[in-house]
């Protein structure tokens, strides 16, 4: 079936674009209040998200250990990257974890990440430090609860 050719005057692309609910640009003053309300809603949503993030960080900080990244950890990260093939970012995370494991020997240890594809290469090494490597947060919760309850 051949397409019929239309003259430029008949082409639907030449006429004004009509979309239901959209008015011509000349009436944008009517939408100013709607735009302001939309922007206000976006700002409010961003502020709520920030508040939830801050609350989550505050909650985590009370039970987590924050390990500073010092020059020996950076040097170890480079070695880990070369030895394991981890990305520089993952190698830095892993070097920080190992540094912490070396200095804090008491109690059960767990490293949780959703990045199974990359971190599976260090599972045996973590086990030598007595550290369990888990890839799902719900499994980690169960493991931690079992360790707490004895």
Protein traits:
150 residues, mainly alpha, 6 helices, 5% strand
Strand order of the largest sheet: 1-2
Q: Spans with pLDDT under 50 lasting ≥5 residues?
A: 1-6
Please identify the structural class as seen in this structure: mainly alpha
Number of strands: 2
Helix count, DSSP H or I runs of 4 or more residues: 6
**So what's the overall shape?**
elongated
Average pLDDT taken over every residue: 81
Beta fraction of the residues?
A: 5-15%
Element pattern in H and E: HHHEHHEH
Supply Rg. Answer: 28 Å
Biggest sheet statistics: 2 strands, parallel
Amount of helix: 55-70%
Cα-to-Cα separation, first versus last residue:
76 Å
Short description:
The protein has 150 residues and is mainly alpha-helical. 59% of the residues lie in helices and 5% in strands.
Please tell me about this protein's structure.
The protein has 150 residues and is mainly alpha-helical. The chain has a domain at 71-149. The chain has helices at residues 28-63, 71-84, 88-103, 116-119, 123-128, 137-149; strands at 109-112, 131-134. A two-stranded parallel sheet has the order 1-2. Helix 2 crosses helix 3 (88-103).
């Amino acid at each position: 079936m051949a397409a019929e050719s239309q003259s430029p005057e008949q082409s639907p692309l030449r006429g004004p674009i009509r979309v239901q609910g959209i008015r011509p640009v000349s009436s944008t003053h009517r939408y100013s209040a709607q735009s302001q309300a939309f922007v206000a809603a976006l700002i409010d949503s961003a502020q709520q998200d920030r508040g939830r993030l801050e609350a989550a960080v505050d909650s985590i900080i009370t039970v987590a250990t924050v390990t500073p990244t010092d020059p020996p950890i950076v040097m170890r990260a480079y070695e880990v990257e070369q030895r394991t093939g981890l990305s520089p970012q993952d190698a830095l995370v892993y070097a920080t974890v190992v540094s912490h494991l070396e200095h804090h020997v008491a109690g059960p240890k767990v490293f949780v990440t959703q990045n199974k594809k990359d971190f599976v290469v260090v599972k045996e090494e973590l086990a030598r430090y007595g550290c369990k490597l888990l890839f799902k947060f719900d499994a980690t919760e169960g493991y931690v609860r079992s360790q707490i309850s004895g």
